């Protein structure tokens, strides 16, 4: 029983266990320690353009007890709008980060490498407080590699 629950939770956290076409989320280490360099194509979402399931397949899946999926939200809303809560613990970024409600695109862009370097959340209730969801790491890594577009 516990195992089944844990597996379901893991699916919820990682997203898309049952849709059959989800590809594994693979993070690469390029560009994670430098300022953005725009050497990857525009990901078709951005600071003011919403993430959708068409351009980011994991966007439709809610993590854990999150209020919101990524789908339909701009990166600015995901970071700054306390009513948009995509983490499995349903905590707004601004609950822990005072800068979150007013940060600019460029200033958030500069914080992405530090975000990517943090531990990855398992969503099992034992995560380090600094752990970040894998799906958000991939979302922000693609955005950062493309030069943090609007
Ligand atoms: C439960 C508390 C908590 C929540 C909620 C949270 N974080 Fe964090 N975050 C941390 C901790 C702890 C660290 C590591 C210590 C530090 O650097 O502040 C961290 C580090 C970071 C960093 C790198 C350090 C920095 O301040 O630039 C970024 C960027 C970041 N978080 C972004 C986010 C975003 C975006 C969200 C919302 C999706 C979020 N965090 C939600 C706790 C949290």
Summarize the structure in words.
It is a single chain. It contains five helices and no strands. The relative contact order is 0.22. The model is unreliable at 1-24 and 28-35 (pLDDT under 50). The chain has one domain (41-145). It is mainly α. Bound molecules: heme C. Residues 78-79, 87, 91, 93, 95-97, 111, 114-115, 118, 129-130, 136 line the site of heme C.
Question: What descriptive keywords fit this protein?
Answer:
single chain; mainly alpha; binds heme C; 150 residues
What percentage of residues falls in helices of 4 or more residues? 25-40%
What do the pLDDT scores average to? 84
What is the terminal separation in angstroms?
Answer: 45 Å
In DSSP terms (H or I, runs of 4 or more residues), the helix count works out at: 5
Q: Indicate the radius of gyration in whole angstroms.
A: 15 Å
Bound molecules: heme C
Number of strands: 0
Question: Describe the biggest sheet?
Answer: none
**SS content category:** mainly alpha
Domain unit count:
1
SSE pattern, N- to C-terminal: HHHHH
Strand content range: under 5%
Please summarize what this structure is.
The protein has 150 residues and is mostly helical. It has helices at residues 2-14, 75-80, 93-96, 105-117, 134-145.
Topology (elements, then pairings):
Blueprint (H helix, E strand, L loop, with lengths): L1 H13 L60 H6 L12 H4 L8 H13 L16 H12 L5
Heme C binds next to helix 2, helix 3 and helix 4.
């Amino acid at each position: 029983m516990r195992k089944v629950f844990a597996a379901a939770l893991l699916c919820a956290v990682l997203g898309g266990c049952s849709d059959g076409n989800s590809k594994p989320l693979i993070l690469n280490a390029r560009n994670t320690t430098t300022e953005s360099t725009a050497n990857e194509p525009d990901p078709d979402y951005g600071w003011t353009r919403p993430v959708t399931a068409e351009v980011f397949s994991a966007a439709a899946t809610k993590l854990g007890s999150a209020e919101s999926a990524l789908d339909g939200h701009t990166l600015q809303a995901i970071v700054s709008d306390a009513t948009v809560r995509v983490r499995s613990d349903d905590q707004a970024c601004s609950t822990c980060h005072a800068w979150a409600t007013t940060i600019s695109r460029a200033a958030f862009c500069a914080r992405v490498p530090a975000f990517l370097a943090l531990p990855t959340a398992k969503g099992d209730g034992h995560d380090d407080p600094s752990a970040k969801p894998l799906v958000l790491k991939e979302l922000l890594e693609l955005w950062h590699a493309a030069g943090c577009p609007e």
